[in-house]
Amino acid sequence: MRYPARSSPRFRKPGTSRTSKPRTRPGQPSTLSWHSPDRTDYLDDQAWQDVAAALMEPWGDRQYEADVHFINVPDWPRATVDEVLAAVRGDDSLAVVFLADRTTMQAKSHPLLAVTTLTRGECLDDEDYEQLTEFGGDFRVLPARLHEVHANLSIGNLGFEEFAAWAHDDPEGIFRSF
Asked: How far is CA 100 from CA 5, 6, 92, 94, 178, in A?
């Protein structure tokens, strides 16, 4: 069964969109957008360089140019998912955040953590929320696939829950491809 995409009007406040929008955190520059990997681990600079390089590669069947805004501010080390979500909670246009956490840096394939910003209050009822979070509120995504996730979520072609389901089916819990 295909569920409604989070970017549908039913999950948005009137007048908002799911496009990139600058977002700030206390003590940080205004650079966080919907398509911004947020670095929370600073123990391995080479791993970060590898992740950044992979994210800048052309992507998709037409080799689209990557448009990525990196959040690489060492004042935010080892931030938890809850801390990052609390920092972006007021941004109605932000549907997902991508984190380059310790697992990202240590794993050979450098899978980023995609985390939904969906709350129960944005859903019609408890059943709706449970359906949209059936496979959890986060999943891992390969750097080379982050752009596909972002593009499909931004146009409402697929919902976060569908990517989470594909990652759930992967032996390592990573979204790798359609």
From this structure: 25, 23, 22, 17, 22
Q: Give the other-Cβ count within 10 Å of 129's Cβ.
A: 16
CATH of domain 32-175: 3.40.50
pTM here is: 0.78
pLDDT for 36: 66
Most confident range (mean pLDDT) of 20-29, 48-57, 65-74 is 48-57
How many angstroms separate the CA atoms of 175 and 114, rounded? 10
- Strand order through the sheet with 112-116: 37-39, 96-100, 112-116, 138-141, 174-175
The label of the residue with tokens 């984190």 reads 99
pLDDT tens sequence across 56-115: 998 888 888 888 878 777 777 778 899 889 888 888 778 899 999 999 999 999 999 999
- The residues, ordered by sequence, that sit 6+ positions from 83 with a Cβ below 8 Å of its Cβ are none
DSSP-derived 3-state class of residue 30: coil
The domain limits of the chain are 32-175
Residue (of 15, 117, 33, 112) closest to 69 by Cα position: 33
